[in-house]
Amino acid sequence: MSTTDEQERSQRFAEQRDRIRAEHLKPVASRPASSARGLHHAALISSDVERTVRFYQDLLEFPLTELIENRDYAGSSHFFFDIGNGNLLAFFDFPGLDVGPYREVLGGLHHIAISVEPGRWDHLRTKLIDAGVELVEHSEVSMYFRDPDGARLELIADPLGEMYGSHVL
Length: 169
What we know:
Layout: H1 3-24, E1 41-45, H2 49-59, E2 64-69, E3 77-82, E4 88-92, E5 112-115, H3 118-130, E6 135-138, E7 142-146, E8 152-156, E9 162-163, E10 166-167
Domain VOC: 38-169
InterPro entries: Glyas_Bleomycin-R_OHBP_Dase, Glyas_Fos-R_dOase_dom, GlyoxalaseI/FosfomycinResist, VOC_core
Protein name: VOC family protein
């Protein structure tokens, strides 16, 4: 694709975003309250329960809060980590079921962004580097990396409701 084609394509997408924003994004003062109370949990798939626990609890310092049998698949585990603010990150394993490797697909998971205090961000960054986890940093407050099964995570030092210093909530 030529530079001119890329510029025209980018311009079309920008115009579409502007139209959607103008039509659907209500000013804060007139925005209704959400019908939701918050994220109860997001559930991912784990290929190895113990390896996942070591990564999320020991490395990222998200306490394991429960480990039970999955009610929908005999022998499968359903387990939860505290990610703060009353929110949980959950996992299932499916022993004996070939779920294949992690893939990003339309309608699937792109990444999970978890807010941490700036000092904790630096501490966890050091732990991830020391553990040999490959990460990419952005804007000195955001780092992306993958868990042992390939799910992309982001640790962001911005407060909840902010993104790179701008309010998004």
